[in-house]
Predict the structure.
Amino acid sequence: MQHSYKYFPVSETQRKWGLYATCAGHNRTEPLAQFPSRAHPDEYFFTWEKGRILGEWQIILLEGGRGTVEFRKRRFAVSQGSLIVLTPGCWHRYRPDNETGWTTYWLGFGGDLATRFASGAGFNPDGEVRALGTKHRFCRLFADTVTDILSGGKPSLYSAAAQIPPLIAALTDDGHSGTSRTESKAIQSAQTYITEHVCEIVDFAALAESLGIPYRTFRHLFTKETGESPLQFQLGIRLARAKNLLASSDIPIAEIAETLGFNSTWYFSHFFSKATGVSPRDYRRA
């Protein structure tokens, strides 16, 4: 497990100010690695069996890999570009997939202003998952903000807190982009389905019909929400899994191609080389 994080003390003055950062971090959990790490403070550590309840807001961005998130009786499959929103007082648990591991950025915050901002952004008070996609502008903004907080020396706690409103504003603006909440949930369901059937041939027209959306509208909404077409989204997940298998296993390239649903080793190698600039064999060597 590779991680970098900071936890911030919260003074009474900051609480009166109404907005404060509690923690920030960047984490890479390798396949089959223990999760979560015992390196975190006791109040943040949890086990899958018991889960956890926080007294603050946290937003967690999945930069790579995939995993599972649960809120009471709701369960979500998450993948690259998913945003996990944890709310104060909400029971939850999450973990990476043993096959892929995952890479995350996270930021914790609290205060009366934070609650008002979160409400304005439409965050579900019982916790939620938003499928932003890999090219969503918020993803880069969020990663850069967390990196800035982590890379500085002794951070100004007020400066760290001041970076929270622009992030929530970016999500709020997106929430008023013309896509209804029902449509967003439909696209999130589509992403979950594609992720769970990523190695199969997915009939996107049939998927759109099952969601009650005309196919042309579905393609438009999917691209608008994620920055990618449904097929590009599926191929992106296949590519991420291919990289992981090449880097972390000795599985023959032909077997990886077959496992990931490619028609031939040649087609897989052509796709991989075009996407990464190197052949699967050279990627594994590197």
